[in-house]
Write the structure tokens for this entry.
Amino acid sequence: MEYKWTVLSNTTLGALMASINGTIILISLPVIFRGLDVNPFTPSNLTLLIWVLMGYGVVTATLLVTVGRISDMYGRARMYNLGFAVFAVGSVLLFLIPNSGSEGAWELVGFRIIQGVGGAFLFANSAALITDAFAASERGKALGINQVAALGGSVVGLVLGGVLAGIGAVHLGSIVIPTWRIVFLASAPVAVAGTIWAYVKLRDIERARVHQRIDYIGNATFGVGLTLVLIAVTYGLLPYGGQSMGWSSPWVWSGIGLGAALLVAFLFVETRVRDPMFRLNLFRIRAFAAGNLAGLLGSIARGGVMFMLIIWFQGIWLPLHGYSFSVTPFWAGIYMLPMMAGFVVMGPMSGWLSDRYGARYLASAGMGITSAGFVLFLFLPYNFPYWQMGLLLFLQGCGMGMFAAPNTAAIMNAVPSETRGAASGMRATLQNAGMQLSLAVFFTIVLVGLAHGLSGSVSSALTAAGVNGPAVGALSGMVASNPSGALFGAFLGENPMALYISYLPPALQSQIAPAISTLTSRAFFPNAVAPAFLQGIDVAFEISAGLTALAAVVSLLRGGRYVHELHSTQSPTRTGKPTGGAEPSVPPVGDPVVSPK
């Protein structure tokens, strides 16, 4: 096999594994918590639940820039291989979690963080290794395949998690492997095999630059600052002081303030050190700056909203169509597959087209299609005909596929070869941080809408179901004061009304006994919360439509095709004039050598 195809196949496997493991746990959480004998809905375990859900993404987003910079210094293939090994170790440790209860759950968080560290090495170096191995005329196609794995893996993880969680325990003679361990066992052998393959086959094409210094102050200010911001906004989703969310908590705002201050200090530090971690001067290259800004806007727009669509399926649409809450996590992943299909269709195709015609118009059209899709979501009723939702999901997948590969290729083509690791890490950091912030922002928007609308709608639904007296106020107040419990309950495959009823005093439970079967039916909760949920998610759609429209405009501003000097073994270096846009009057890093159209 030609070396470039070895690089593409291994990095695609790495990106797929890291992406799948970012979401596989989401669908299988009910089985995992039951296996560990942990109730995620008790107040003392809410923090644990948040860390299980968000810890992997927070760690990955925080480390990407640092990893990319270190990879330029010590070798991208070497650091990528190390990341695969760390990821494999985390996968094996997850399968071998020794304890149960809260201790075992915190071990789960810790081993997921180890996996996230390995995932950061994989994400940060995949695009750089592909760019090193492929000529500029083929990079779009290669990066398109890799991007399909990286983004499509998140959908595959949802489906695979549901499949593995439903197969039951495996008996190997006298050895019984519980269902929740099977979820982690699936990735362990693939990760180990991928690690061996990477160490045997991958090598560094570009010369490492070990003479450069590690920017310790920059690493510390960026890592701690971004971690504080992401953790603080995540904790803003938890109830605090009798309120439905934690945005009034001084700890949340202290974390955001201190984290933001450290990030500002980081920018100051990076302009004054000899070998900065974050190559700010790369943003003087228009194609790099516009591509990263458009990518950040797109990540913020779609990350949280896609999660809300899954909850829409699990908490409302699927129960209304006869699915029990216990199976909705799996079927939500199945019904989201049209989005992956659109991405698989358009990702490689748009990458191939961008190799010939440039990224500018393809990427902009992709963001425009995505924006139009968000607008069309506004017209769906909460109990929509599935063909309408499926068509819109496919449209969204096509739009994201049209944007992802050309945009990544344009960013990586625009930077000098010696900074590709740092550039890849910067691109991945902005994308992953945008996804994490998006989850917090859009969760907040939907929860605010639920908090304002649930009390009245739930009270009316309870009265119509025959519930009277103090139980009405108790149940409606419980739902309105803790809407996050309703969303997390539906997301984890539990009937939220059954959970709320279990929290009532025994006297009130006896009072509503004749109506319990109605209250815990598949249709009661969806019909009670759907109007308030739809109001909140419509606001999220409007914001996402605006952000992706802005991203389309920013993408247009990237200029024409612009390629720095090529150090590829596949093609000789060529010089020429830019085919569009303005060439920088003072090249930021080296002298750009531009490949003619």
User: Anything to note?
Assistant: Strands lie at 170-172, 175-177. The chain has 21 helices and two strands. Residues 566-597 have pLDDT under 50 and may be disordered.
